[in-house]
């Protein structure tokens, strides 16, 4: 049986613990939340990867790996996300639940010690991070950016988002740019580390089969040693659709054209209409039984794939499709026709039930994974009105046909991005 504990550690630092004995593992993570800003995005993005390499107690990658192996093969991972207009830097540790340790070891406490070590006590020499680790993480971060650029489906989505949200923090890449990463210098990373620890809003998550109280005490003691400055004010901007649709077409060596349509809606967190909008977008293009899949892809054969997704933090709907270049216009018209059907209420009770079932199943899947739960609780802290999975499921169940029509009519086209060309690059 899961029990949730929420506590304030100090100014701008929150702790959330969820004890759940159905798992044989425990997961703890520290999430550093900052406004998404071009000038610091790349340095911030590099930081969690650099920190997770070592600590003063385990001063290189090998020694840290040996310590994790001693803790029954525990893992330590870093990540960077963009949630709304917020950049999220995360370091997470996962390991065996204490009750399953062979000799009664406090695995979770040792793992928390490792996590606090890499975060607060890196192996600085003369105030600097190790040069070799810094250079390696720069190369790997540039490779992450290039991997996204080389995947044309991801590239097309990012280009549409950048055009749709031009001038907004959300239009930036979560890693910054290749040029900014390449230009980073070692001394700046120490400054970035101090700045992030002193200014970021922090969420500590402890999930799974472990005792919450001793872990709370350890993290509380670690964070209360910090000098916390005034926290920056940040939130997520939701803008209306353009009066005139922006259309951009680019050419690259791709074998399959990409069509990404960016739509705006004023419905975003923490508004009451979010569940209806989420269900409406699922019916439009979020499931195998959706209108876009069954009609545009299957019946009309206009797309190799065609799907819709809803960003409830930004009030953005993206429709992504892979098409033959000569079908770009037809695909666009067919997609808008299916949106029109939603706006007219041209859908069946069976379609509503199928979409509800799909969303509810996705919520059940989240409850079966500690990593997925961490993502859920992280996002919920930024909504302004957090929900449990059970509350979110009940809200979806309660959505009516009238609410779906009303939500659909609050979606407006803003940006159309087309990527065309010829060649044998990744399609």
User: How much of the sequence is in beta strands?
Assistant: 15-25%
Helix content: 40-55%
Which structural class do you get from the secondary structure elements?
A: alpha+beta
Number of separate domains: 2
Going across the biggest sheet, name each strand in turn: 1-2-6-3-5-4
Average pLDDT level: 94
- Tell me the total number of β-strands: 11
- Name the CATH homologous superfamily of the largest domain: Metalloenzyme, LuxS/M16 peptidase-like
Q: What is the number of helical segments per DSSP (H or I, 4+ residues)?
A: 15
Please give the alpha-carbon distance between the first and last residues. Answer: 46 Å
CATH class of the largest domain: Alpha Beta
Radius of gyration: 23 Å
Per CATH, which architecture of the largest domain? 2-Layer Sandwich
Please mark out the parts with pLDDT under 50 across 5 or more consecutive residues, or reply none: none
N-to-C series of helices and strands: EEEHHEEHHHHHEHEEHHEEHHHHHE
What is the global morphology? globular
Describe the protein in words:
- The chain is α+β, with helices and mostly antiparallel strands.
- It folds into 2 domains: 3-223, Metalloenzyme, LuxS/M16 peptidase-like (Cytochrome Bc1 Complex, Chain A, domain 1); 246-420, Metalloenzyme, LuxS/M16 peptidase-like (Cytochrome Bc1 Complex, Chain A, domain 1), CATH 3.30.830.
- It contains 15 helices and 11 strands.
- It has helices at 38-51, 61-70, 107-120, 131-150, 152-164, 178-182, 186-199, 212-223, 274-285, 291-299, 328-344, 349-367, 370-381, 389-397, 401-408, and strands at residues 3-10, 13-19, 25-35, 75-83, 86-96, 201-208, 246-251, 257-264, 305-311, 316-323, 412-420.
- The strands form 2 sheets. Strands 1-2-6-3-5-4 form a 6-stranded mixed sheet, with helices on both faces. A 5-stranded mixed sheet has the order 7-11-8-10-9, with helices on both faces.
- The longest helix has 20 residues, at 131-150.
- The two termini are 46 Å apart.
